[in-house]
Amino acid sequence: MKNLKMKAARAGKDLSQQELADIVNVSRQTILAIEKGDYNPTVNLCIRICEALDKTLDDLFWPK
């Protein structure tokens, strides 16, 4: 399932995939794969992404 919530939150912070990847210490391809729904990140990576985007785990990773 695509993670459009994460993509929207990233865009809302005016961050490129590369900039977010640099902040959370992963590759740009990892961010792309998460947004496309091709990769399920670890809980630790989810937390780092949430902190970088000022969102909660529920906001970004829990289906509603």
UniProtKB/TrEMBL annotation:
Domain HTH cro/C1-type positions: 6-60
Entry-linked SMART domains: HTH_XRE (SM00530)
Coiled-coil residues: none
Pfam families: HTH_3 (PF01381)
Keywords annotated in UniProt: DNA-binding
Keyword DNA-binding: yes
Record's keyword annotation contains DNA-binding: yes
Protein name: Helix-turn-helix transcriptional regulator
Organism: Lactobacillus kitasatonis
